[in-house]
Design goal:
342 residues; 63% helix; single chain
């Protein structure tokens, strides 16, 4: 008898990780970390321009990707448990953790689970966006409705609770992600589109250098109503439309130049939430050591490169093992079988 043929297990294409998205997430988190590190250096014109440029699209990029990866969200027990374990519980943990530096550095202890502090707004907003996913999947014109809500949110002084200004203001990017399909990303990978993307990113950088002193920083933070920023609702709505369009264009350009092959940093892209949630503590400490050396162009470049290194470090396996209890806590003990009415 001949020896039995070894069993080969071939994963179906749908279950394989696409390195394109991991690459995009890692490059995006690098922009986030570097952007936060240079935030206190904005007296240097190049730092202010870079900060303005990055903030136009770095969180919209994360939100679009989050929307795309949330397309299959339902209210099934498994998805609900994951929502609680990966967003709700880490939100509570990091709200508490971020209160400690404020207590040590500023002597202020202020904990409000409904009013997100610093970086945690993204967890709160993503939690609410993901809950709303089934609704957007059933609307005929979801993106139009989302843009309308974004514009309307700028006409009212919404409460800080639940991060309402950002949740509604940035909503169109999440809905855009929900509407995207694999063929849209395949189109972005075509060579002519990749070239156009590189040109668009370069043009955006030049525009940021020219315009960064003429546009109020609050427009790129999505935190306040039009009248708080100092404009009427018509002007504010037009500016918001422009920011939404600019963000979407730069997100598309960024994705067009993102490598689709497996790279050295693809594996790091699977752990970007670690870098996002953990880097804020490093930033708050690092800012206290900025001196005259950092208030120069070489100093800004050095800090930005430090941010890239920090982003990579926080995505590594040792850091993940040490902090998994906070970022990806095991909550299996808290769940039971789904209770259904008799």
């Amino acid at each position: 008898m001949s020896a039995p043929t070894p069993l080969r297990v071939v994963l179906p294409p749908a279950t394989r990780r696409d390195p394109f998205f991991d690459n995009a997430k890692f490059l995006a988190i690098t922009l986030v970390v570097s952007g936060h590190l240079i935030e206190d250096l904005r007296d240097v014109p190049v730092a202010h321009a870079a900060y303005f440029y990055v903030y136009v699209f770095h969180m919209p990029l994360f939100i679009v990707l989050s929307g795309y990866l949330s397309r299959n969200f339902t209210f099934s027990s498994g998805k609900a448990r994951k929502l609680i374990s990966t967003l709700a519980v880490p939100y509570v943990i990091f709200e508490l953790l971020y209160s400690l530096p404020r207590l040590v550095l500023y002597g202020k202890l202020d904990i409000s689970l409904l009013d997100p502090y610093y970086l945690t707004w993204f967890l709160m907003s993503l939690f609410l966006w993901r809950l709303s996913t089934p609704v957007w999947q059933q609307l005929r014109w979801p993106l139009v409705v989302a843009v309308g809500l974004s514009l309307l949110s700028g006409m009212s002084r919404l409460p800080d609770e639940l991060s309402m200004n950002r949740t509604l203001g940035l909503l169109p990017f999440y809905v855009l992600g929900l509407m995207l399909r694999p063929e849209h990303f395949a189109w972005l990978r075509r060579r002519p589109v990749r070239i156009a993307g590189a040109v668009t990113l370069a043009a955006g950088a030049v525009a940021a250098l020219v315009l960064h002193t003429h546009v109020k920083t609050e427009w790129i933070r999505w935190r306040h109503a039009n009248d708080v920023i100092g404009v009427d609702d018509l002007t504010g709505s037009l500016i918001r439309l422009g920011m939404l369009a600019a963000g979407a264009l730069l997100v598309a350009a960024f994705l067009a130049v993102t490598p689709s092959r497996h790279t050295r940093y693809s594996g790091l892209g699977t752990a970007t939430m670690y870098a996002y949630l953990l880097h804020g503590m490093v930033v708050k400490v690092a800012e206290r050591f900025y001196g005259d050396w950092s208030q120069t162009v070489p100093g800004v470049v050095a800090v930005a490169l430090l941010g890239a290194g920090l982003a990579a470090l926080l995505c590594t396996t040792p850091v993940r093992r040490a902090t998994r209890w906070a970022v990806e806590p095991d909550m299996s003990w808290a769940f039971t079988r789904l209770r259904r009415p008799a």
